[in-house]
């Protein structure tokens, strides 16, 4: 590399500055929603409202919190500093959690779709619903961990060729330390895990749900018409209304998942088409600008910001929940203060 025109001065252009501002706004939005929803879910679980859907939402929330408090702050700091100053261990750790957060989120979306499919298509399966969901969630965590683990081996800290003091957290194939074909195989596997396999599960589950609900609706209308009247909404059983509401909530989460991730993986598909699979490197016939890739991935992370607001709207009465949460936290704080004062009095 020719280092004649090289400069160490950090310059942030207008586009990069706009991207930083967007990430900061996204972080604030995601932090408020996900922390608030975590406290609401925590209160519900502590007050013995252990419902299989609440358990799924808890794990979805944890995945979104990882993206919120690991990926977004790291991205903001790195966009400002331009170089990596965190060392090799932090480089590998953050890259692991970059993938782990979104992998776990995708896996939980799959769990929610399967749960809804079984609930609608095989109603008696809800008897063991909590146990079944816990098994699915264990598999989700293990598979997300396995999907993220290669990140530790792929990424490393490398020095700038013109200045060894300036380092960057990069993939090892970028600096010639690893065959690009291995990285390509892993990238394709990750794309399948995060987007394409969940997409297939979503299409299958919701086509089955739509088909079953359509048949039930026709049978009910036929039965009601024979009886001489059509049942009005107030006479619909409450549990059926609740089931429809949960289906809508799950569908909304799925919709935002597809809306946010589809543009990024559409661009990734173009990248895969342009790959020379003998070398594992791009032919450069299709060029996607670096800034566009960053914008598309930022748009994908919006999914983790919106999830809390979506399932909060469908699952909880937020006004009542916030009031109950305030009472719960106040009582917990008072109990903690009284127990601490009792300990102090015993010591004295």
Automatic annotation (TrEMBL):
It is a multi-pass membrane protein. The chain crosses the membrane at residues 16-41, 53-73, 135-158, 183-206, 246-266, 295-316. Residues 33-311 form the G-protein coupled receptors family 1 profile domain. It is found in: Cell membrane. Keywords: Cell membrane, G-protein coupled receptor, Membrane, Receptor, Transducer, Transmembrane, Transmembrane helix. The keyword Transmembrane helix applies. GO terms for biological process: cellular response to hormone stimulus. InterPro entries: GPCR_Rhodpsn, GPCR_Rhodpsn_7TM. One of its GO terms (cellular component) is plasma membrane. Pfam families: 7tm_1. One of its GO terms (molecular function) is peptide binding. Belongs to the G-protein coupled receptor 1 family. This is AKH receptor, putative.
